Amino acid sequence: MYFILRLLAVALFAIVIFVFGCGYCLLSPRNPENVYTIGRWFGKLSSLFGIKLNLRQTDASKEVGTCVYIANHQSNWDLVTVSNAVRPRAVTVGKKSLTYIPIFGAIYWLTGNILIDRNNRSKAMGTIGQVVDQIKENNVSVWLFPEGTRSRGRGLLPFKTGAFHAAIAAGVPIVPIVCSSTRDLSASRGDNGHVIVEIMDPISTEGITKEQVRELASRCHDVMEEKLAQLDAEVAELNKKA
What we know:
Layout lengths: L1 H25 L6 H11 L1 H4 L2 E7 L1 H4 L5 E4 L18 E6 L8 H7 L3 E3 L4 H18 L2 E4 L17 H9 L3 E6 L13 E7 L13 H29 L1
Parallel strand pairs: 1-7, 2-5, 2-6, 3-4, 3-5
Antiparallel strand pairs: 6-7
């Protein structure tokens, strides 16, 4: 019953967001502020799925300014959980194939996100240069999933280096974002318990060269892996009390 009702609600939401979201974005197409607005709309769906979402942000991350955000990428649940952490003037970098998803694809393009072809390494590397240009010229931050694919309950996967190359080249800090594990969430369950999303302290790239990119990626991975374990333990305790 929950699954059917939620399916109907999401279908209705998709129609509303396509009509009003596209209309809103067409007033200022490809404006990076659109990402924040639409991201928060999707984030509102967390309560529809019985998720008690707790968004946290450190004081240092509130004052960081232009940066590269990196987040763990778990599943389609990210649309209603991690989307709550999207910050103003932050654009995402995603696969070009996302534009083929009905409704979502049109919104994704209109909001000003950067699209790359992961099957073509030369184009992907060229996009890193475009990311750096946008950071410097348009005063935007970028949001990337350094795992490069959904982890689907396998923990935090190894990081690819694109996000770290971009941060080093642009001379901006990296801000990790970690969402507690969502592998046990179910659209058929009335109460899906707690999910915590935390925007962490910035990690400086000052003085780091491109030759040290893997060291930087490893450091960020360790920090996020430790935070994921902490959040999962906290969520487990919260759900026990509930």
